Amino acid sequence: MLIIGIAGGTGCGKTTVVNKIINELPEGEVGVISQDSYYKDTSHLNYDERIKINFDHPRSIDFELLVEHLKALKINTPVNQPVYSFVKHNRTGDTVLTHPRKVMIVEGILIFTNPELREMFDIKLFVHADTDERLIRRLKRDISERGRDLDEVLSRYQMTLKPMHDQFIEPMKEYADMIIPNNKHNTVAIDIVRSIITQKL
Ligand SMILES: Nc1ncnc2c1ncn2[C@@H]1O[C@H](COP(=O)(O)OP(=O)(O)O)[C@@H](O)[C@H]1O
Ligand SMILES: Nc1ccn([C@@H]2O[C@H](COP(=O)(O)O)[C@@H](O)[C@H]2O)c(=O)n1
User: Fold this and answer.
1) ipTM of the complex
2) CA-based, 20 to 30 A from 97: which of 33, 83, 147, 157?
3) Mutate to test the pocket of ligand 2, among 41, 42, 83, 86 (most ligand atoms within 8 A of CB)
4) Long-range CB pairs of 113-119, under 8 A, 24+ apart, other chains included
5) What is the pLDDT of residues 123-147, one digit of tens each?
6) Ligand 1 pocket check: which of 16, 106, 133 to mutate, most ligand atoms within 8 Å of Cβ?
7) Which residues of the chain have pLDDT under 50?
8) Domain Phosphoribulokinase/uridine kinase: where (predicted)?
9) Ligand 2 close to Cβ of residue 168 (< 6 A)
10) pTM for this one?
């Protein structure tokens, strides 16, 4: 199994890049695990307590479960990926049965911060988009898809997102094998990654 890690700040385009990579590959050959599915369970908290969580800090992620799942997939065992709700700030209780594939892509803002997980990646990619571009994209996406409003996005940005990005995410570029510039849609980089995957299939 080839395991590819794709990191980068919120709104840089990780999900978009992954979808473009897999869209033109044979179905069933490449699997995806999203770090977002592994936000810790917050059922013990009420909604007002949940919205105060710093979701840009590594401690908000259940890395133990993520590593356990990736190890299971490596030995050909399917896993139940949790489903996460950005509206409720919690896991929904549903899971998605995820089968092992020849190539597994793991994507998420903080995936290179955990040494055990980082060591599991055969290839590490970092998607870069400028800070202002990412904020604009995040605003539009969170308002249209994640049940947020302007104030929510901007206050989260100032209070936690930006400081955590500077402290934990940007320094992870150091570990990347390749940085994908994504201020504009980058078809060349996507073709390169797709051809690396195709060689493995
Ligand atoms: N290169 C790009 N140019 C313009 N918009 C983009 C680009 N890449 C992604 N987007 C848009 O930005 C938003 C965030 O992208 P997404 O892939 O969800 O980012 P991430 O997974 O890194 O948070 C989405 O609405 C997506 O359509
Ligand atoms: N309940 C939550 C959980 C996470 N976030 C934000 O999601 C961002 C990471 O996801 P991307 O798809 O954008 O990479 C991260 O910056 C968290 O602030 C949230 O808003 N609410």
Assistant:
1) 0.98
2) 147
3) 86
4) 113/58, 113/168, 113/169, 113/172, 114/58, 114/61, 114/63, 114/66, 114/67, 116/63, 116/67, 117/5, 117/63, 117/66, 117/67, 117/70, 118/5, 118/175
5) 999 999 999 999 999 999 999 999 9
6) 16
7) none
8) 3-188
9) no
10) 0.97
